[in-house]
Records
---
Amino acid sequence: MLIIKVGGGEGIYYETVCSDLARLYHQGRSCLLVHGGSHETNILSEKLGHPPRFVTTVSGYESRYTDRKTIEIFEMAYCGKINKMIVEILQSHDVPAIGLSGLDGRLLLATRKPTLTIVENGKKKVLRDDYTGKIESVNTDLIHLLDQAGYVVTVCPPAISREHQAVNVDGDRAAARIAEAVKADDLVILSNVPGLLEKIDDPTTLIKDITLTNIDQYFEYAKGRMKRKLLAAKEALLGGVTRVTLGDARIDSPITHALSGNGTVITRRDDSSRD
Ligand code: ADP
């Protein structure tokens, strides 16, 4: 199974991603799509008078502060608007897409972090009303059931906690966990950049090849949420996925391009095939 993650940042056109996925699907490839919705969530949060707040965790990762009201807005954007829009586009390409959040059928089970320790103005601060978590397991029975029946599962956060609460989980890491759980060979992570860049404003500085053995040295280039993409790639490879490609979502046939070796290709071994 091929796992594709498409970001929710500015400049992403779902039409090209969906038409490419449709082509692969009609060629007989089994695909699962994970998507984000961060940009849309920010817009909706402003409109609803609950502006987004981003915090930096002690381990240096940027995270959306997700109180209960934010979870509701998050669901409106991710599960309501973006998920249904993607399903609609896929259906227009004769793909029998089915949209599910991590809550549906307990697709993504997560542990909610009881507290979130952040760094603000150089000082540590503990947040207790934050609903974010880490995925513990994936309901692969449900994925296989739908996949074998020919559906294309289209997944978005949130996940569900053991206490039955919706929790915000990172989309890239969710895609990595799904890829690992279904034993996917390929994970393609598409966003609004050509891949991991040495200099963020210069697309000619694309880092083309990384392996699991040297991935840690590339974290210094990744800022903001790109850091999570590298982390997701590392987790997926450690979990048995053969190849992770960070590719550009803004071009025609973005999935096919990424699968042909365009973008940042991250493999488990130095001698991995790039076919
Ligand atoms: P998503 O597509 O999942 O919503 P983002 O758009 O937040 O995720 O992640 C991609 C962003 O990461 C880019 O828009 C870019 O601004 C940022 N970024 C930070 N460091 C780098 C880097 N070294 N190379 C490329 N992009 C980077």
---
Amino acid sequence: MQDSGHIRLADLGEFGLIKRIHERFPAPDGVTGIGDDCAVLPQRDGLQTLVSTDMLIEGTHFLRGDISPYQLGWKSAAVNLSDIAAMGGRPTGTFLSLALPASTEAAWVDGFLRGYAEVSERFGAALLGGDTTASPDRICINVAVLGECPSGSARTRSAARPGDLVCVTGTLGDSAAGLRAILAGVERDADVQALIDRHYLPMPRVEEGLRLAAQAGVHAMMDISDGIGSDLEHILEASGVGAEVDPASLPLSAPLQRVCTRQGWDAAELAVCGGEDYELLFTVDPEAEKALDVPHTVIGRILSGRGLRWLGDARSFSGFDHYRSV
Ligand code: ADP
Ligand code: MG
């Protein structure tokens, strides 16, 4: 690859940029990837195809001044891989559409591609195509992701049953606290940095999703992008059920608890209403829950009524909505 020096996209041109991307992302064996009008993928017996897409807009989803190109590349791929994980699928490929100002440095793109490649390769997803265009000022990124799962095994939001336990992987609220720390300019000690890393370098729970989907007792599943307050409502609505959740049972990381104590932030609120955890939220039959081989926390239970009830204190929580200020 040509040394990036101080080359800008205005010098490289659209095709120069695509060539740079193509060199970095060769197609896997048996697949036609970047370079033709379409990617061509083999069809495999007994498997179903999963497809999703997610957009990241400068100023809405990220601030160019703070996030590094590497982190942005990682996050663009990771949030899409997380959607495949949420269905219990295995990611196979992605498509990357970039709208970049002509003043963008080639070195910025190289950093972006490094982050994008690192998380994609970790989970076996090849970059198979995309689109490239100039943008007047802001960076816009759209990623489409492909995945596969055995026919009939995809975990939807509509499969929760009364009596199921409500569970999550990992810890909640770290990413939202990291964002709050960035916006408030909190001094970045090791704890704050750990939270910011979770915001900028989310880890898609692909292996966890695959293992959960291999268990018959795991019913509904989704990834947590807007906070469980909002995301669990989606499962309840799609499944036609209700739930009770105990805020005291929410899994909180040690860095989150320490930073919240120091800053006077409400950790439970961050865990419920903050978004971008990219952990898995799932419901499981109580017998099957005992045998799960995926680390998780039980936070509540599915009920036959409607609505989400918070146990303990009387606070009401809500998630993040792009068109509503909360
Ligand atoms: P078209 O004129 O058909 O839109 P393009 O010139 O945009 O084709 O793209 C040429 C090839 O490069 C296609 O295979 C396309 O998928 C791929 N490509 C374009 N932009 C990107 C990108 N940002 N990332 C990955 N592949 C890309
Ligand atoms: Mg094109």
